Amino acid sequence: MLAPRSLEESASPQARAPEISDLGRPPVHRFTTAARICLGHRGITCAGDDGHEARRHILRGPGSDPTRRTRRQRNGPHREYGRSTRSSGASRARSRPRRPRSRRRWPGGRCACTTRSPSMTIREADKANRVAGALLGLMPNIGGPRSSRCRLYASVVDSILLYGAPAWSEAAKTHNYVRRAASIHRRACLRVICGFCSILHEASYVLASIPPLELLINERSRLYHRRLENVGSEERGRTIEKWQAQWARSTKGRWTHRLIPNIIAWIEKRHGEVNYHLTQLLTGHGCFRSYLCRTNNDTSDRCPACSLAVEDAEHVIFHCPRFAEEIGVLHRLSRGLLEPETLEGFMLDAKPNWLEVSSFERARRR
């Protein structure tokens, strides 16, 4: 076997051409000037063992011991997760592989976050907020798509908000993680009904025919636990029952509750679209002097035709003499006296009735 050559001999032009006797030798490592200086400070020559020992010193770094063994050489064969087989009893107890973090499943994927972490809800709420902002340009209050089409757009926002709801539904009961998501949900409902931002949550949900977000979260959780059964309509019925009970107990949106006391009949209507003008009549938030005075946009809440009466939605559609002709048409269609408690049944009875109430509010604005 040929003797190993030094670094200078290997770097010479004559030594670069491979010889027939050197074809069976391992490749000689070439070192740069910086490598030679580093090895010279350590007192190591580049010759011998074909430069492999010098290369190991460079990789180990300064201050390394050439005789030092690696941890694998000292401890012998390793178990899985990098634990030595020659450890004590306490070490063996610690060397047991860790159990993977529990993952909660829901239809459509996995959730790596626990029920205590709000990161999932916050991340999805941010995404839904961006989507809702992008949809605002598609749903203007005047001249936009009809409410049924806007409800389809709002379902996209709800799908993002409810993603993985069975995983964090328990945390939503005791924490305020869903407060931001509920505000985005309400924002989408306001776009469906083309209403003012001052409309209360309860009234906006009823007019948009979309349940509150808390009830939708509970419904998704129940559907997941009963995913092997065909109980979609049953669980939606339970959600509507709870929604109806909340609507009856609530102290907010009472004018809308007088007009629409029955949620089931409203959301199952077969005709009629809510628009910008009709929403003002059904909520009382619009071009009424009582509302304008409450929002500091008018100096008086009195009706210009009836100096002693407050001009609100009830006074305009049922009692104001300025609109006696339009009120008479509504009374003839209803075949009797029309009151706030009977307005919902009158509108849902026939499509012409719905259109007449909607055109009444539009004619009042002229």
Automatic annotation (TrEMBL):
Residues 1-27, 55-112 are annotated as: Disordered. Residues 93-107 have a biased composition (Basic residues). It comes from the Eukaryota. This is Reverse transcriptase zinc-binding domain-containing protein. It comes from Trichogramma brassicae.
